[in-house]
Structure formats: C-alpha cells, structure tokens
Design goal:
The structure is a single chain. This protein is an alpha+beta fold. It has a single domain, classed as Sufe protein. Chain: A (Alpha-Beta Complex). Helix content is 44%, strand content 21%. A three-stranded antiparallel β-sheet has the order 1-2-3. Strand 1 and strand 2 form a beta hairpin. The longest helix has 21 residues. The radius of gyration is 14 Å and the shape is globular. The protein starts with a helix and ends with a helix.
Length: 126
C-alpha cells in the first residue's frame, strides 16, 4: 500500500515538534478522515528565508510522512519559494501515495500556505 519512502519517513519523521516563538503557524484538518496538521515556521525577517519548520500531526502514516517531508522541503527556502511547493511535489518526494491518501499531501500544502499567510499578517505584509 505505501512506498518504502513513506514507511521510512513515517517511522523516522523529521521536524516533529513545536516552535514556541513561531513566526507563522498554519493548522488544517480533514473532517472526513480526521487528520489534523499544524506547521510552525521560524523565518529570518530580513531575508524571508525559512530557518526552521516543525509540525504536529494527528493522523495516519501518510499524513505524518507528508508533514515530515513538506517541512524538510521548505527549510532554507524563501517564503515565496515555499509557496511554490505543491502537493504533487510532496507525493513525488515520498515516491507516491495511494489515491485515497493524496489528501494528506494536500493538507501539507495548505498548512504551509496558512503558516506563510500568518507570518505575512504578523509582519503587515498580507
């Protein structure tokens, strides 16, 4: 059902946790399956580069793997470049997801967007 990459990422997720003084936070949920994903960003305000990203996810293996992969993909990127990451990029990095689990990668994309929006609002840039 899941690729080796998904299972490895699920079993050993990176960037799990909370950033207490986060510059941006995005929370999304899927009421159908019950997955809830929260992404925290720490951003260099001079360069708009994401210095750290953490996540807390309540959900299935695909949701946790998507959160882990997505946060890893955005660290070191500008907020503009982070917004260019789409759910299909997360799926590709995970070497595929079953069709019924694609929504987990969509949640990751949406959580990133909400966290960046939160950051921009706090900076008066929205």
């Amino acid at each position: 059902m899941y690729s080796e990459k998904v299972m490895e990422t699920f079993a050993h997720p990176q960037n799990v946790g909370v950033i207490e003084d986060a510059d941006g936070v995005g929370t999304v949920g899927n009421p159908t399956c019950g997955d809830i994903m929260k992404i925290y960003l720490k951003i260099d305000k001079d360069t708009d580069v994401i210095r750290d990203a953490k996540f807390q996810t309540f959900g299935c293996a695909a949701a946790i793997a998507s959160s882990s992969m997505a946060t890893g993909m955005i660290i070191g990127k500008s907020v503009d470049d982070a917004l260019k990451i789409k759910n299909r990029d997360v799926v590709e990095a995970l070497e595929g997801l079953p069709p019924q689990k694609i929504h987990c990668s969509v949640l990751a994309e949406e959580a990133i967007k909400l966290a960046v929006d939160d950051y921009r609002k706090k900076q008066g840039k929205s």
